[in-house]
Amino acid sequence: MLLVKIAIKLGGFSFPEDPAVEKIRTYANLIARFQREGNRIVIVTGGGKNARKYIEAARKLGASETLCDQIGILVARLNAQLLITSLGDSAYPEVPESIEELRHFFEVGKVVVMGGLQPGHSTNAVAALAAETIGASLLINVTNVDGVYTADPKKDPKAKKIDEISTDKLLSLTSSKHISAGSYELMDPVSVRIIERSHIPTWIVSGEDLENIVRVMKGEHVGTKVTS
Question: What pLDDT digit, counting tens, does each position of 18-43 carry?
Fold first, then answer.
């Protein structure tokens, strides 16, 4: 396998309300394997159901959307810490809270795991920024769906999966949706813009089968490829 710098976004579905210890351990084992093979890796974790639960509670209590974003960031960082714990010596022991810390931690050579950075940026945008920062040759967005569709496949039976999509087209799809704290879906406009400017080869794949990550790294076509 070609040795590369890789950024992987683990969607919030990987971190349910009741933390799935075995699922986290399975991800950690796979990531540690990539690292042993010589790949340099940054992982960005989503907030998942716990983030949405706390955000909704804060919103009902009168919190601003900025504060709701900050709460989501804290939960995503907790998820990052769980993955770091499972990775053990393979991971840098701290969660970076800025791009500067990401650069510093990445130089050590261990897997870096991070959550959110600042209000207004989804963890998808953080993953794109992380990929840009480390000069990644690949960004893999691991979600609970198998790619980008023409419409929500859960609501529209006529929705069709798109095998390859340009950043322009993806931007038109994401820009038409309302965005608030905790509501980011596959991609948001900020993350798409970062991918576009950096020309980062990006894949959106289902994490229900972890071998999809391996397949993408081997150059196989799974999920949806995003081209800039």
Answer: 878 999 999 999 999 999 999 999 99
